[in-house]
Every structure is written in C-alpha cells, then in structure tokens.
Amino acid sequence: MDFSKINWKQFAVSAVIPLAVLVFLGIWPTVGPTYQVTLFTYFLLYMVIAVSWTIFSGTTGYISLASAAFYGVGIYAAALFGEKMPLIFVIFIGGAASFILAFIVGAITLRLKGIFFAMFTFGLVLLMKEVIHYLEITVWNTRGMFVILQSNEAIYYYMMGIFVVTMIAALLIKRSKYGLALQSIGENEEAAAHTGINVTMVKILTFAVSAIFMGAAGVVMATKMTYIDPGIAFNPMMSFSPALMAIFGGMGSIYGPVIGAVLFTYIQEELTTGSLKSYYMLIFGSILVATILFLPNGLMGLVQSIWKRIKGEKRAPTRG
C-alpha cells in the first residue's frame, strides 16, 4: 500500500474525527454528570431526527413536516408493546410501523409539490393526533397510556446506537445511485425522469426509509416518560425543529444537521432554563431569521466559505 497517495486531511475528517467523537460519546455516561448525560441524550435524539429529515427533504427539496407523526408512532409503539417484549424488538416495531405509514403517505402525497406537500404532511400530524385520541376514548376506553421506564444510561446507549445507524444509512444513501437520483430530483425533477429515474418510487422509498429512524427514536425516548397521550406524542414542534436544525447547520453536508441539532438544542436549553427564558421565543426567532437571511447555507456553509478564503490567502503570495 502506497501511504504517500493517501489524503491524510480527508482521512482525518472522514474517519479519525468521527471515530474519536464516537469514543467520547461511548464513555460519556461513565464520566459525565447525570444532567449532562441527559442533555447529550437530547443531542442524540435531535441529531437522529435532523439527519433523518435531511436524507429526504435536504436532497429533494420537498419540505416534510411529518416528523412528529413518525416520532409519535414510535412513542405509541413503546406504550403498546413495551410490557410484552424487550425494548430492542419494540424499536424494530416502531421503525417498521413508521416506514409503513410513510410509504402509504408518500404514495399518496409525493405527486404534490411545494407548499401543498408541506401542508399535507403537517396535516398528517394533526390527523394522527385526532385518530389516536378517538381510539383511546372510544375503543381502548382510556385517556393516555403508561410506558415502561428505562434507566438514563440505557436510553442514552440506545439513542447512540440509533444515531450511528442513521449516520451510516445517510452516508450509504448519499454515496449510492439513489443519492445521485435524489440529487437529480432536487435539481430538476422533470430532467431526472427523462434520464430514466423512477422519480416517484425513489421519493417514496427514501421518504419511508427516513421515517424508520424517527420512529425508532420515538420508541426510545418514550421510555423516559411515565405517561404519554396524543398531545405529547404528536407535538408539532417535533416537525418544525428538525427542519430548523438542518437549515441552521446547513444541508450541504451530512454533518451540518448534526452541528445544527447540537447548537440548536443547547441554545434552546439555555434560553428556556436561564434568566432569559421570558424572551425565549423572541431571541430564538431572531436567531433563526438571521440564519435564513444571512447564512443561506447554514453554519457549515459559513465555515466552508471562511476556509476557502484562508486557503486563498495562503496561495496568493505564491501566485505573485
């Protein structure tokens, strides 16, 4: 093997840094305070949801607001099956149920475009909330459900496992022929169809695959709650937050949604628990508006732009 041909900078970015981050995440529950472990669990949750959202919406340009529906399906899977089988099997059930729901919804709605698709997917969240509420009242004769709890460490490691699988799936999709097809669809759907791409099926399958991880995350996070009901499970903020996190971090790179999710969650935590909590929505909204107006490619786009300028300054003297 000729080591001189290896691009060591690219190798560090693509392998060493992610591996170091994984090692850190793996040992964190054993050395970190309880509060910080819980905070990192929420980091992992929103990283999973934001990356999952970007797999479909970030490449195709179809803005999905159905994340809360798939997440809520996972939460109810935990409530219905948590007492009957180990958590790992419930995670598979939650992911599979979300896949099936997304496949059916995608087959119906992915012929719609623009605002119509976004409105329909958000309508799905409200529909699921009302359907489950109706079932609870009229069929199950209950109001809300209890969930079997797990320890903080178990929840953390399950979320970490789902995060790793989500990142691997996102990378594989991005570097596969489906990734190229999705990119083509995002740039020009009609042209992609003329090249022989089955546009509708690619969109439906990718939409359904992205929902798997949202449902699986819902199963795990449900085990932090003693009680759930449709209002908790199908919270509309779980639809808006992933989109905002991905935009905040930048959708041009797979790491953009990850960075956006971490910073977004941390800012949210600080604003809602600190002395500025009365101004939370005002400050939060201002940050988002500023990001959209001045950072159209997100934080990753800003970093890449600065890096290009630094490289350009270094090269200037040699050209002169």
How many beta strands in the DSSP annotation? Answer: 2
- Unreliable residue stretches: 316-320
Strand content: under 5%
Rg for CA atoms:
21 Å
Q: What is the helical fraction, as a range of percent?
A: over 70%
SS content category: mainly alpha
Average pLDDT value?
85
How would a crystallographer describe the biggest sheet? 2 strands, antiparallel
String of helices and strands: HHHHHEHHHHEHHHHH
Going across the biggest sheet, name each strand in turn: 1-2
**What count of helical segments does DSSP give?**
14
Shape: globular
C-alpha end-to-end distance: 37 Å
Explain this structure.
This protein is mainly α and about 325 residues long. It has helices at about 10-30, 35-60, 65-80, 85-110, 115-140, 150-175, 175-185, 190-195, 200-220, 230-235, 235-250, 255-275, 280-295, 300-320; strands at about 145, 225-230. The protein has a two-stranded antiparallel ribbon. The protein has 14 helices and two strands.
In terms of topology, how is this protein built?
Layout: H1 8-31, H2 34-60, H3 67-81, H4 87-109, H5 114-138, E1 145-146, H6 152-174, H7 177-187, H8 189-194, H9 199-222, E2 227-228, H10 230-233, H11 237-249, H12 255-273, H13 280-294, H14 298-319
Antiparallel strand pairs: 1-2
